[in-house]
Design goal:
The structure holds 2 protein chains of 2 kinds. Chain A is built from 12 helices and 4 strands. Chain A has helices at about 1-35, 40-60, 65-85, 90-115, 125, 140-160, 165-175, 175-180, 185-210, 215-230, 235-255, 265-275, and strands spanning about 120, 130, 135-140, 210-215. In chain A, helix 1 runs antiparallel to helix 11 (about 235-255), helix 2 packs across helix 10 and helix 6 (about 140-160) runs antiparallel to helix 9 (about 185-210). Chain A is globular, with a radius of gyration of 19 Å. Chain B is an all-alpha fold. Chain B has one domain (about 1-325): ABC transporter involved in vitamin B12 uptake, BtuC. Chain B has helices at about 1-25, 25-50, 60-80, 80-100, 100-105, 110-130, 130-135, 155-180, 180-190, 195-200, 205-230, 235, 240-255, 260-280, 285-300, 305-315, 320-325; strands spanning about 145-150, 150. Chain B has a two-stranded antiparallel ribbon. In chain B, a hairpin with a 2-residue loop joins strand 1 and strand 2 (about 150). The chains are: A mainly alpha, B mainly alpha. At the A-B interface, helix 4, helix 10 and helix 12 of A face helix 6, helix 13 and helix 15 of B.
């Protein structure tokens, strides 16, 4: 029993780390531009399909697809930014509709290119079991956990120690004051989209390496990222990490003790609980009325 | 006034008599029109919530699915008559909307996303609650519309008359709400919610009412569709298409008008099914996504209002345009 719980906790932390990459991207864009990118999950999925194509068409490891995925997803992110920045009136709501439309295009484009079939990696090396003390996992899970930790640490360093990262935080906390300090907010917005794209590319490769993908998955990835940001409370990087791990653990506990079909529902119940009981999230204060 | 009444009567004759006469022979086209009107009804409900309530929802599929399952199950398991079950389907959808209420506390974009998550929850529940819904296997042989006064309403034309009447009734309700005191308060809230609250308007209550009304209408459309199609499964009843198509239709036609979403639904759905689908069988909705994006960028008030504005500039009657504001 205890072993099962510990194992579920371990798996939850491993998947949660990839969720964190997705949610951080969503939160970053929301922070700088006050725009929720409803196509975010689809862009993550696009990276996953790039990894799939790399493996199925060229026989290369999904890991080698990451640089290609970064380029493709970042270009898509930049295009999304260009379109969103052209909205003049009522940007908060119109950007939702616009990115929703982009999401619909991406989903159908993926359907067109890769069909509705469920895909997963065929690499035995990635799927091999790795035993660490009492904990089991796939090699891909452990690998991408480490990658996520490095990326999150890097993001943390970038946001707190570099000029560009500080500019992102400045625009997020007070756009007008940031302008007065000589920061070009448009440039910062673009940078936040590109960084989100970078994180999304890694997350996509991760999801393909230890899970299954199909074109309809995009929406549920966006929802997961949203649930995490609600758990976290807006504008809190540690909150996103805790929220992501919490969601991962909730899902893996449900899979272990109930059924995998209910795992998404469990995440939603967590979401409702936070919405009712802690409407400010675990760490945030800013996003309510 | 008399001219308006004449136009109304002429329109009613065209819609109720001429359309069925012209297309009844072509069952495929007739079923396309019925589906377009079903989506039009949801688009109208979605636009009502957006225009009067100021809320953008990405989860109307939840209300549609709840309405369709509720009506089908009430008829099949509790022996309700189909007319009553349509209303009950709407009521159940409105009850489901109660669960969305905590999301009303959230600011605009968060509400939109929260409702998206809710739609997901309802689909999973419908899939997993096998005792009630038969899970992913779905429900077949849902009772059809009955024969009334010797006319079989289960036919394509019968379905057309029912859905047309529902949609027109919804449009009338929408117009009535918009022109009521509540509608005035709701429109004032669009400009400044704080100022409206200051003069004693309970803004949260009015928004919640609009949410219930929108959910009710969507639920009734779902219930209609269940008895018209006679088959339900969670992935169909709660499909994201029931959210996506109405949004594209309402934005295309102009979500701040009453006729816009309906005309938008007919145009968008028929284009999608008869043209785009013929050109590319898979993934044809990519065009609808592009259409939605283009509308938001170039004509966020909808194509109809674009025409209307042009007419206005050419010396039309301003009062006619402001009625639809």
């Amino acid at each position: 029993m205890t072993e099962l719980v510990l194992q579920a906790l371990w798996s939850g932390i491993l998947t949660g780390s990839s969720y964190a990459l997705i949610a951080l991207g969503l939160a970053l864009i929301f922070g700088t531009m006050n725009v929720i990118n409803l196509a975010h999950g689809e862009l993550v999925l696009l990276a996953a399909y790039v990894a799939y194509t790399c493996e199925s068409a060229f026989g290369a490891s999904p890991l080698l697809a990451i640089p290609v995925a970064i380029v493709i997803v970042c270009v898509a992110m930049a295009l999304t930014y260009l379109l969103v920045s052209r909205i003049r009136a009522n940007r908060e709501l119109n950007s939702l509709l616009l990115t929703y439309g982009i999401g619909v295009m991406l989903t159908n484009g993926m359907l067109l290119l890769w069909k509705a079939d469920i895909r997963s990696t065929k690499s035995a090396w990635l799927q091999d079991a790795v035993v660490l003390g009492p904990f089991y996992s796939m090699r891909s899970e452990l690998l991408f956990f480490l990658v996520s930790v490095v990326l999150i640490a890097g993001l943390w360093w970038w946001l707190t120690r570099t000029w560009a990262g500080r500019a992102v935080r400045a625009v997020a906390s007070n756009r007008e004051a940031a302008k007065l300090m000589g920061i070009d907010p448009h440039r910062v917005e673009l940078v936040s989209f590109l960084v989100a794209g970078l994180l999304a590319a890694f997350a996509g490769a991760a999801i393909f390496s230890f899970g299954v993908i199909q074109p309809a998955l995009g929406t549920s990835l966006t929802i997961k990222a949203f649930v995490i940001t609600v758990l976290a409370g807006m504008g809190s990087v540690p909150g996103v990490l805790v929220g992501a791990v919490l969601l991962g653990i909730t899902e893996s506990l449900t899979t272990t003790f109930a059924s995998s079909a209910l795992q998404e529902l469990a995440g939603m119940v967590l979401f409702l609980f936070v919405l009712f009981v802690l409407p400010n999230g675990l760490f945030g204060t800013r996003w309510r009325h | 006034m008399q001219r308006r009444a004449l136009i109304g009567i002429a329109l009613a004759i065209v819609l109720y008599a001429l359309v069925p006469l012209a297309f009844a022979g072509n069952l495929y086209l007739m079923s396309m029109i019925v589906a377009a009107l079903t989506i039009g009804g949801v688009a109208l409900a979605w636009a009502l919530l957006g225009n009067l309530g100021g809320l953008v929802s990405f989860g109307h599929a939840a209300f549609f699915g709840v309405g369709s399952y509720a009506s089908a199950l009430l008829v099949m398991k509790a022996g309700w008559p189909i007319g009553g079950s349509l209303i009950a389907g709407g009521v159940c959808a409105a009850l489901a909307a109660v669960l969305v209420l905590p999301a009303l506390r959230l600011r605009g974009p968060y509400f939109a996303l929260a409702v998206l998550a809710y739609a997901h929850i309802f689909r999973i529940i419908a899939t997993e609650w096998k005792g009630l819904t038969n899970g992913a296997g779905g429900i077949g042989n849902i009772p059809r519309f009955p024969v009334v006064f010797g006319y079989d309403f289960a036919s394509k034309t019968g379905g057309y008359w029912i859905v047309l009447s529902l949609v027109l009734a919804f449009a009338a309700i929408y117009a009535w709400v918009r022109d009521s005191h509540a509608g005035l308060a709701l429109r004032a809230m669009q400009h400044s919610e704080d100022a409206t609250r200051a003069v004693g308007v309970n803004s949260q209550f009015l928004k919640a009412l609009m949410l219930f009304l929108s959910a009710f209408m969507t639920g009734v459309m779902g219930a209609f569709n269940a008895h018209y199609i006679n088959f339900l499964e969670p992935d169909y009843a709660f499909s994201g298409l029931w959210t996506m198509l109405p949004i594209v239709a309402a934005i295309f036609g102009g979500y701040r008008t009453i006729t816009g979403p309906l005309i938008g639904a007919v145009v968008v759905y028929l284009l999608d099914q008869l043209v785009f689908k013929a050109l590319m069988p898979i993934g044809h909705q990519i065009v609808l996504g592009a259409l939605l994006g283009a509308m938001i960028l170039f004509a966020p008030e909808g194509l109809l209002s674009l025409f209307r504005r042009r007419r206005l500039q050419q010396g039309g009657v301003p009062a006619a345009a402001s009625r639809n504001a």
